[in-house]
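Hypothesis: this fold can be encoded by more than one sequence.
Test: take the structure tokens below, design a sequence, compare later.
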């Protein structure tokens, strides 16, 4: 693999400073590397790993991503065409869906077929948004999840990914209903939780991601 260069995409949505700090710590644990927060699509060409964070409503995040000239095309070229390791976080993962249903239908990137729909727990006493610590139950072996089964991660969300094909589900979490907390398709992985807010477990996941060579 080429020298480590992680590009965290700045499109006006996401815990950018937290994501940068946590990823830099994970990189340091591997011996160092460049971690760059950028809204410049040209930076993706030299990236070894790409992270798309996301906080807020699906439509707002999609419009924000589209507003960065050339970013969706560059992402598609480097991730789909180039096969670079990609991590979507929270709404950054949800944007991989075919469509989001939050505040009306909105097209996603369509990289993992499925829809993003509201959490509807059977227990109506459960508060929405789902906010706080919850465990991740691994469904399949994957190097990015090594050593992390049943660990607690930090969630903040009112919507969840419903993949068309359950083969993409690496891990589930329960909040009145099971929902995918980690999805994967080839070189693309996404977490519904925020690893950058998940302390030691989050740093471990980011380190696994940076060591991943799909």
């Amino acid at each position: 693999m080429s020298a480590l260069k992680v590009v965290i995409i700045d499109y006006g949505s996401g815990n950018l400073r937290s994501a940068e700090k946590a990823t830099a710590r994970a990189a340091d644990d591997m011996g160092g590397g460049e971690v760059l927060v950028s809204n410049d699509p040209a930076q993706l060409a030299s990236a070894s790993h790409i992270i798309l964070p996301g906080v807020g409503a699906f439509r707002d995040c999609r419009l924000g991503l589209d507003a960065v000239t050339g970013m969706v095309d560059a992402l598609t070229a480097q991730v789909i065409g180039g096969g670079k390791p990609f991590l979507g976080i929270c709404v950054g993962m949800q944007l991989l869906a075919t469509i989001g249903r939050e505040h009306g239908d909105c097209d996603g990137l369509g990289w993992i077929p499925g829809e993003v729909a509201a959490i509807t727990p059977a227990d109506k006493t459960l508060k929405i948004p789902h906010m706080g610590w919850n465990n991740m139950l691994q469904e399949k072996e994957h190097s990015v999840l090594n050593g992390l089964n049943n660990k607690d991660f930090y969630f903040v969300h009112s919507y969840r990914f419903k993949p068309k094909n359950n083969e993409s589900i690496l891990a589930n979490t329960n909040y009145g209903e099971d929902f995918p907390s980690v999805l994967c398709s080839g070189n693309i992985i996404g977490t519904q939780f925020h690893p950058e807010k998940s302390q030691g477990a989050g740093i471990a996941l980011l380190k696994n991601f940076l060591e991943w060579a799909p």
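The radius of gyration is 16 Å. Helices lie at 16-29, 58-67, 71-81, 91-94, 199-211.
Hypothesis status: open.
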